[in-house]
Specification:
Helix content: 25-40%
Largest sheet: 7 strands, antiparallel
Shape: elongated
Distance between the termini: 43 Å
Number of strands: 17
Strand content: 15-25%
Oligomer: single chain
Structural class: alpha+beta
Number of helices: 17
């Protein structure tokens, strides 16, 4: 359990400095500012109160004034931690038991934020808010009541960037699977999140106490803080803050993956669930190649389908023959929103080539379960492909998922071949989509890449080329002769990115067929090279004149990996084919 607590604590610390926290920082900073407390009298040594017959007698000395210590920063953060922890674990259970709307907690949080803002602007409102705390006798606790209430409201509106730790907490809370481990993970995560926020609130208090301009204008500053809270509430209600967060880079994603998706974290977090579909654990996320990760689990436990004819469900078994991309997302997750332009581009480019995209909307918070909210946000975000509302997180569990967003690629036979967690790897994912589409139909004509690349892709990578006389790209050498066995010769020089033939070839409309002494050469730059081949025989692969691989070819068109490097390499590739083998397309990754 100690390791689990440390994982939760570190995960909370990383979350607290992520872009998703930025909307609440100004409120936390200003909440630690000028306290509303009136000065109280104290007396110097010569003016101390002396006991006389059981009553206090004031010795003659002039009183001095001292402002009680401002504990508002602690009250705000304490309220946030308590509210976030309690309602993340039990909110769904309570709301369901009482038959309340799924988004009631969000509305309560917005209302509290507005009331606190009004209280800072109008002191009578603040006094009303502090009345529930007035009976607490301990020193200034009652005076911090509005700050604590503010923390409670922020906890209900708190939407941190979700990693594996928060995902595990959310899933457990949504499904009512509470245990000592889950509670410990939740509390440690909340404490880790609270520490940076507390530092920020204390900084606000220090600034207000040390800078004279703040002390002199305390009343005006409180009005500004109140107005800011009301504006924040409106921004959250209208999802205006999402646009700001989408524009910011996710600078904590690398640290989050190193901590929360480490081997130790996976072991600890996976122990919170059952052993179903363990085959998916055979594969690691983001590996730059296709692997067999077991049969794709069903999409089940869905409360409603969007963007399907008549709201009919999508059955993965009926999608055999197509390549399926499953995207786990939730509409308030900024990381998910930033990945959607890439998915929309793939939908537009490859749907006609056999790609089916399914969004599995697995909610992080109760208000995301409402079908009307999801439908409205999906329309705003341009999501037109089928969306399954996984409100019970059944499909999330089926895929042993840990991240928002997460993408799973399923081949035409229904096998999971690749998955990636979080943002990034868009170029790599698109390359593997193209590979699977060619595996499903080697004669498919794919459009150019969408350009939805990331920094991992080199700008001058060799483009793919089809080996047919209809749309071959980069060919140099003897003119191609249609549908007739012809002898070709390598040119004296083969420029970068160019393709040439040697020996006997038959150049057809769909593919080239190798004859006697058939050779194919290309000067390329890429990390990996793939060639779709069919027929029966052998392929010998040479790079820079040295044999690097021999392949036995037998059967229908299949993609073969010729070169597989960790880093981009520039060199001359040559492939020697025995007579009768058919070559369809060369691709580079």
């Amino acid at each position: 359990m100690i390791i689990l607590i440390l994982i939760g604590l570190l995960g909370g610390l990383i979350t607290a400095v992520s872009p998703c926290i930025l909307p609440v920082l100004p409120v936390v900073f200003l909440a630690g500012g000028p306290a509303p407390d009136a000065p109280r009298e104290i007396h110097a040594t010569g003016g101390a109160r002396a006991a006389d017959s059981g009553s206090d007698v004031l010795v003659d000395a002039p009183p001095t004034t001292k402002r009680p210590r401002n504990r508002r920063p602690y009250a705000v953060v304490a309220g946030l931690v308590l509210s976030f922890s309690f309602f993340t674990l039990l909110g769904v259970t309570i709301v369901t038991a009482l038959g309340l709307p799924e988004d009631i907690l969000r509305y309560v949080g917005l209302a509290l934020l507005v009331l606190i803002g009004l209280g800072l602007v109008f002191p009578p409102v603040e006094r009303v808010l502090e009345k529930p705390f007035a009976r607490i006798p301990q020193r200034q606790v009652n005076k911090e009541g509005s700050a604590f209430a503010l923390g409670l409201g922020l906890g209900l509106l708190y939407v941190p960037c979700a990693g594996p730790v928060l995902a595990a907490i959310t899933v457990a809370g949504a499904q009512g699977r509470l245990s000592l481990d889950i509670v410990a993970l939740t509390v440690s995560f909340a404490i880790g999140t609270a520490l940076p926020l507390l530092v920020f609130a204390l900084a606000g208090r220090r600034v207000s106490e040390r800078i004279g301009a703040f002390r002199k204008r305390a009343r005006k500053l409180r009005i500004v803080a109140g107005a800011l809270m009301i504006v924040l509430a409106l921004g959250l209600a209208l999802n205006v803050t999402d646009a700001i967060q989408r524009a910011l880079p996710d600078y904590t994603s690398a640290a989050q993956k190193r901590i929360e998706d480490s081997k130790a974290a996976r072991q600890q977090l996976s122990g919170l669930y059952d052993d179903s579909n363990k085959e998916l654990s055979r594969c690691e996320d983001g590996v730059d190649e296709l692997r067999s990760c077991g049969q794709a689990p069903p999409i089940e436990g869905i409360s409603q389908w969007l963007n399907t004819p008549g709201g009919e469900p999508v059955d993965l078994k009926k999608e055999r023959g197509k390549v399926v991309l499953i995207d786990f997302w939730t509409y308030s997750c900024i990381n998910c929103q930033r990945s959607l332009p890439h998915i929309r581009a793939w939908q537009k480019a490859y749907k006609g080539a056999g790609l089916e995209i399914i969004g599995v909307h697995s909610p992080e918070f109760g208000f995301e379960k409402k079908a009307g909210n999801v439908r409205s946000q999906a329309e705003k975000l341009g999501v037109t492909y089928p969306v399954a509302l996984d409100n019970k997180l059944t499909t999330w569990d089926n895929y042993r998922n840990r991240f928002w967003p997460a993408k799973y690629l399923i081949d035409s036979h229904g096998t999971v071949r690749y998955f990636t967690f979080g943002e990034g790897r868009y170029a790599q994912t698109e390359d593997l989509i193209r590979d699977l589409l060619r595996d499903a139909d080697p004669t498919v004509k794919l459009p150019p890449r969408t350009g939805q690349a990331d920094a991992e892709l080199t700008a001058d990578r060799t483009p793919e080329t089809y080996l047919n006389n209809h749309n071959i790209v980069g060919y140099v050498g003897d003119p191609l002769v249609d549908d007739k066995a012809t002898a070709y010769h390598f040119p004296a020089d083969l420029p970068a990115g160019k393709l040439a033939l040697d020996g006997t070839w038959t150049a057809g409309y769909d593919h080239f067929t190798a004859g006697e002494n058939a050779r194919l050469a290309m000067t390329y730059k890429a990390k990996n090279v793939n060639l779709v081949l069919a027929g029966r025989g052998r392929a010998t692969v040479l790079r820079d004149g040295e044999v690097v691989k021999r392949l036995d070819i037998d059967g229908t068109p299949t993609m073969h990996r010729l070169i597989d490097d960790k880093n981009a390499h520039q060199g001359r590739l040559e492939v020697r084919l025995t007579p009768g083998i058919q070559a369809y397309v060369l691709t580079f990754g």
